[in-house]
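Appendix B. Chain record.
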Amino acid sequence: MPQVTRAGVVIGVDIGTTSTKAVAYDTDGRQLGSHSVGYPLNDPQPGYAEQDPQLILGAVLRSVSMVVAELVQPVAGLSFSSAMHSLIGLDPDGNPLTASVTWADSRSTRQAERLRAVPSGLALHRRTGTPIHPMSPLPKLLWFAEQEPQLFQRVAHWVGIKDWVLLRLCGALVTDHSIASATGLLDIHRLEWDSEALGIAGITEEKLPQLVATTAVLPGLTPQAAAETGLPERTPVVVGAGDGPLSNLGLGAVHPGMVACSIGTSGAMRVMVERPGVDPLGGVFCYALTEHRWTVGGAINNGGIVLKWAGAALAPDLGEHSEEDLVALAARAPVGSGGLIMLPYLHSERAPHWSALPRGAYVGLTHGHRREHLVRAALEGVCQQLALVLSSVRAAGNEVREIRAGGGFARSGLWRQMLADALGMPVSFPTAHEGSSFGAAMLGMQALGLISSIDVAADLVRIEETVRPDPAAAATYAALLPLFAELYDALTPTFTSIRRMAPGLPAEPEPATGPPM
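Structure tokens predicted for this chain:
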């Protein structure tokens, strides 16, 4: 049966890496309808991670239309979230000339390393807030210019996936400050395209969308989009923001000093601040939510995917869906895994080193270690990597007063406790929300005048449990963290040699799971 709600229904649309989810909320934060449509992540060559923009547009239209069909009252508006760092080249008519190149694409590794090596690389990171890493559009643009020069010259506009979807839905070529702040092309202190970054990329402002605030409201839908969604043409569309900052909003971590930690397939840690800035060493990113709210933090490639790897590689006898059994196995090993440390860089790594070079490694292995130690060390490695990100957040001059966490890992009591122990702080776990789609809806409600401020999100999100660190375990992890951090630098020459030798080595086995999302 359709749900009858009071006025003020906004549909938050989250364009993710594996699916698009549309969720309807009222101004009390109640979920009224939800629908998700998936699509593949393609890897036609090693290092590629692409998607078909047309499939994603179809998923947006389908998910929204299914939610609209569940509702009785009119929809006050749509508001958007999307994965950050995507890049699509368009022809003059707005048709894609390239696939949507996602953040997981690493083909521009050499371009990113070249940029990082020059003295101006860190200054560029500080101005744009985006680490120089193959995830971001700046190195991707360099790759296209060098490897596909004819195609590069044919492109009329370079956009992200949300920008293109909005172009098709509303006929407006715009990008919000949040998505733009993750391109490596925006001066986050001036909220203008950075002339030096554009010069490096070999493009002009005319090849980029118009910059708008995340709360910008587009006047309505095209006739075709209205017909396909079941909404009136006059329906307001809020441009919205990136999924990372909106995840903070979705967890209610909207006030300065509040950290949002998420571990799904990958992971991230972000603190809300009022002014943009990164740490002197460039260990964190800085992305916009609104003009007066920014998120500083770091993302890691290797979150829950490490547990999936451990199941396939270390305990295949437990079966394909063995997460609970794996966690129970890890619980049999002591805190610190008997001196065994794992660097969980199965898909290289992002924060805080921002390098595609590292690989995973076990260090300290002895004859006394069993597979429960190896599995636990893998989980501890993920938590220790997040502790390094938290250290970088603090190094950027940010106060950390409260940590809220969510994601698939939060279903495990062991992981909850391990995270609190590794971070050395209490961690609060809200009751389930749809994360970025909820954040998008809240931002849309503010833009449309349905709520006074996104600050109300902190009151709408209920805390299910707060886990406090065990003093002994926290002391063990604190003692191990410097060793964990030193191993990256110590093994960098080895990682470099392995990559140099890779062309002459037998091909790597196919991964048990796809690239991290």
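Further analysis of this model is presented in Appendix C.
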